[in-house]
Amino acid sequence: MDNQDFHRKIKADVIDAMEEKINKCQKAGCQNKVSYKFLTGNIVDEIVNEINNNNYDLVVMLTAHIDSWFRSLFSDVRKIINHISKPVLIIQ
C-alpha cells in the first residue's frame, strides 16, 4: 500500500467513525446540526480560528488531562478555551 492509499484508508476510517457518531446523535433525538471538519496545521490555532470564524452554539471537546490540575493547565483544551467565547462541554 503506498502513502496516498494509506491516507485514504485512514481518512475513510475516521469518516466512518464520525458518521456513526452523528447517526447515534440523530437516533437519540438530536434536532440540531452535528458536523465535523478535517483541518491541518497547529491544533490550537486551527480550532480557535474555526470556532471564532463560525457561529457555533456549543463546542464539545475531549480531554484526557482533566484529572490533574497541573497537566490540565498546559493542555491544548485549556489553550483553546482561553481564546474563544463560546460555551464548551468537556468530556473526559
Q: What order do the helices and strands follow?
A: HHEHHE
Largest sheet: 2 strands, parallel
Q: How many helical elements?
A: 4
- The total tally of domains equals 2
Q: What is the number of strand segments?
A: 2
Detail the poorly predicted runs: none
**Oligomeric state of the chains in view:** single chain
Form type? globular
Spatial extent as radius of gyration: 15 Å
**Nearest-integer average pLDDT:** 82
Helical amount? 40-55%
Query: How would you write the strand order of the largest sheet?
Result: 1-2
Hey, roughly how much beta strand do the residues contain?
5-15%
Give the distance, in angstroms, between the N- and C-terminal Cα atoms: 35 Å
Can you tell me about this structure?
By secondary structure, this protein is mainly alpha-helical. The protein folds into 2 domains: about 1-30; about 40-90, no CATH class. About 50% of the residues lie in helices and about 10% in strands. The protein has 4 helices and 2 strands; from the N terminus they run ααβααβ. The protein has helices at about 5-25, 45-50, 70-75, 75-80, and strands at about 60, 90. It has a two-stranded parallel sheet. The longest helix is centred in the N-terminal third of the chain and has 25 residues, at about 5-25. It is globular and about 40 Å long.
